[in-house]
Amino acid sequence: MATVALTEATFEETIKSNDIVLLDFWAEWCAPCRMFGPTFEKSSDANPDIVHAKIDTEAEQGLAAAAGITSIPTLMAFREGVLVFNQPGALQGSQLQQVVDAVKALDMDDVRKQIAEQDGAKEA
């Protein structure tokens, strides 16, 4: 599956309607972003069950700001609508595959339980 371009208009629906979504926040002028691009594309081809989406931080400044992007490239991973990975910096292919494997292996019931416990601790 080829990567898709996400916009503010398509972001929420894409996250909600897919099991796993990897997001690459990038910009054309960013050399590390251009270096990471082919690695991200290869991951998209190797993992057709995962949505690989790119967000151009220049064109989608509001979305980048809402996501708290302060450095690019930044990779985010959502699983069942939950942000489970967020890291700036270009990854090598093997590192990206480790992230993909880890996200696939998550026990989402446990993740949701941990989030609920953290939310409960904040309220106390």
TrEMBL record:
Alphabetized PANTHER family for the sequence: GEO12009P1, THIOREDOXIN 2
SUPFAM superfamilies noted in UniProt: Thioredoxin-like
Pfam families the record matches: Thioredoxin (PF00085)
Organism: Flavimobilis rhizosphaerae
Keywords associated with the record: Disulfide bond, Electron transport, Redox-active center, Transport
Top-level lineage group: Bacteria
Ranges for domain Thioredoxin: 1-105
Keyword Transferase applies: no
Gene: trxA
Protein's name according to its UniProt entry: Thioredoxin
Alphabetical list of Gene3D superfamilies matching this protein: Glutaredoxin (3.40.30.10)
